[in-house]
Design brief:
With 260 residues, the chain is of the alpha/beta class. The chain has a single domain, classed as 3-Layer(aba) Sandwich (Rossmann fold). The chain has ten helices and ten strands. Strand 7, helix 6 and strand 8 form a beta-alpha-beta unit. It is globular, with a radius of gyration of 19 Å. It starts with 8 loop residues before the first strand and ends with a helix. It binds adenosine-5'-diphosphate (ADP) and magnesium ion (MG). The site of adenosine-5'-diphosphate has 10 residues, from helix 1. The site of magnesium ion has 4 residues, from helix 1.
Length: 260
């Protein structure tokens, strides 16, 4: 069921500095319930900082954010029950099997039938056959899928994936994309951070570009590519790509020849 009235994530004027370094300078973002939104930004743009604030792991200097209607500062426990952040709450234990990892998380979350939860999630991320092998024997893609499954224990309505495919080989990336799409089809709200334009293009209903501490553009892929008239992209006889838009809105210069 989608409750489209309340945005799954609502961010207003979030600011965060580390010492003298301003990282977030007034971020505004809405993620509709059931949507898949990509937060696209270069390395160091502040993507992890923002998602850590949403997951209550970090406190903002200014601004407000709600997750599933709960304020991250005032209702942290409710927020934590509504959101999962991969790589933070889910941490694969290498010594345990895939199934044991999931059972452990299900127990920690006080779910009534941990074993059934584990079996269901193993099937969902296509790890049933590997479920009784130690996680240390898993490939990178399998481990990332297990990590994803661990973040789905208890069916949180909002799932945040912080660079879900960074460091994976092309085959493993495709496997993880497949799981993210399945998650989205099931109605879960997904906010994923990425540095990869193709990943944002493939997975997201909307793309928000984080640059120099603010969201400089936010829209559907069609809306973003419409920002650039095709005629302005010289030497390329096709519609502007997300890459063209990204380069234009972030002002990251291409080489002199290309920009002339
Ligand atoms: N705990 C911290 N202390 C100091 N600087 C930090 C801390 N966390 C992140 N930063 C800095 O904030 C900036 C944004 O980091 P981050 O949010 O991790 O970016 P991204 O996830 O987009 O790569 C970087 O310059 C990073 O070095
Ligand atoms: Mg990061």
């Amino acid at each position: 069921m989608r409750t489209d009235q309340v945005p799954a994530i609502r961010v207003r004027g979030i600011e965060k500095s580390f010492g003298d370094l301003p990282v977030l300078r007034g971020v505004d973002l809405d993620v509709a319930a059931g949507a898949v939104v990509a937060l696209l930004g270069a390395n160091g743009a502040g993507k992890t900082t923002l998602v850590r604030i949403l997951a209550t792991l970090l406190v903002a200097d200014a601004g407000t954010a709600t997750v599933h209607g709960f304020d991250v500062r005032e209702q942290a426990a409710e927020v934590r029950a509504s959101i999962s952040l991969t790589g933070q709450f889910a941490a694969v234990d290498e010594i345990l099997t895939g199934r044991e990892n999931l059972v452990l998380v299900a127990r920690l979350r006080h779910l009534p039938v941990p074993r059934a939860v584990a079996d269901d999630l193993l099937a969902r991320v296509s790890l049933t056959d590997a479920g009784d092998r130690r996680a240390s024997t898993y490939s990178g893609g399998m481990r990332r899928r297990l990590d994803l499954a661990m973040s789905l224990v208890g069916a949180p309505p909002v799932v945040v994936l912080d660079e879900p495919t960074t460091g994976l080989d092309p085959q493993a990336r495709i496997e993880v994309w497949h799981e993210i799409k399945a998650l989205a089809r099931g109605g879960t709200t997904v906010l994923l951070t990425t540095q990869h334009l193709d990943e944002a293009e493939r997975l997201a209903d909307r793309i928000a570009i984080l640059h120099r501490g603010t969201i400089v553009q936010d829209g559907t892929l069609a809306e973003l590519t419409a920002l650039l008239p095709p005629a302005e992209v010289q030497h390329v006889e096709k519609q502007p790509s997300l890459e063209d838009v990204f380069l234009a809105v972030t002002g990251e210069a291409t080489t002199e020849e290309e920009s002339r």
